[in-house]
């Protein structure tokens, strides 16, 4: 049973996506990840984007710990339904409509956040989680990361969760990796936007 680990909604259980198409982040990894993010003081008041959200556990943990806005992006119908239930629970617990769910492919949702004609983002985010399915190729992930880089606030942090057997992500030139950590079968990668000279 997955749960919110800490913060205002700490202890609340999260519904899981039925079947084995999604791979939930273990509580151990989630705890380590969020204690690192809190030590960097980047969650309070953050605008958070949770891509390939699954049950929404990462984004909703951020909401519990002080994020002011969380967008969960998922396209699988079963996962979307679970995201909506978990987001509703968080919003009720926090007495605020912090979490929202967007159904669609990650790349098409990201395209909608960026105005191609003006080259100006319609929305920007401070923290972005990507926990893509293992079959997603490194080239596809690089394309998605490039789109992510177009909607980041200046001091944003991007976190990519991959199998420890997956190769290092191919980072676009607009993102600079600055840390990584392996937890058993899971490898977390951290990056930030490259500031223009």
TrEMBL record:
Its EC number is 2.1.1.171. It holds the Pfam family Cons_hypoth95. The keyword Transferase applies. GO terms for molecular function: 16S rRNA (guanine(966)-N(2))-methyltransferase activity. The keyword Methyltransferase applies. Keywords: Methyltransferase, Transferase. PANTHER family: METHYLTRANSFERASE. This is 16S rRNA (Guanine966-N2)-methyltransferase. It comes from Glutamicibacter protophormiae. The lineage of its organism: Bacteria, Bacillati, Actinomycetota, Actinomycetes, Micrococcales.
């Amino acid at each position: 049973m997955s749960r919110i680990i800490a913060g205002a909604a700490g202890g609340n259980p999260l519904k899981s996506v039925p079947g084995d198409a999604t791979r939930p982040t273990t509580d151990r990894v989630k705890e380590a990840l969020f204690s690192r993010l809190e030590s960097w003081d980047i969650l309070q008041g953050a605008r958070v984007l949770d891509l390939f959200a699954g049950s929404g556990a990462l984004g909703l943990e951020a909401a519990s710990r002080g994020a002011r806005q969380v967008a969960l992006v998922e396209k699988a119908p079963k996962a979307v339904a679970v995201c909506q239930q978990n987001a509703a629970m968080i919003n009720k617990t926090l007495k605020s409509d912090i979490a929202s769910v967007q159904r669609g492919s990650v790349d098409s949702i990201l395209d909608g956040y960026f105005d191609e004609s003006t080259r100006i983002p319609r929305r920007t985010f401070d923290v972005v989680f990507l926990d893509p399915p293992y079959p997603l190729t490194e080239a596809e992930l690089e394309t998605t990361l490039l789109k992510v880089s177009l909607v980041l606030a200046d001091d944003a942090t991007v976190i990519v969760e991959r199998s420890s057997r997956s190769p290092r992500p191919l980072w676009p030139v607009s993102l600079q990796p600055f840390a990584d950590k392996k937890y058993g079968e899971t490898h977390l990668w951290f990056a930030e936007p490259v500031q223009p000279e």
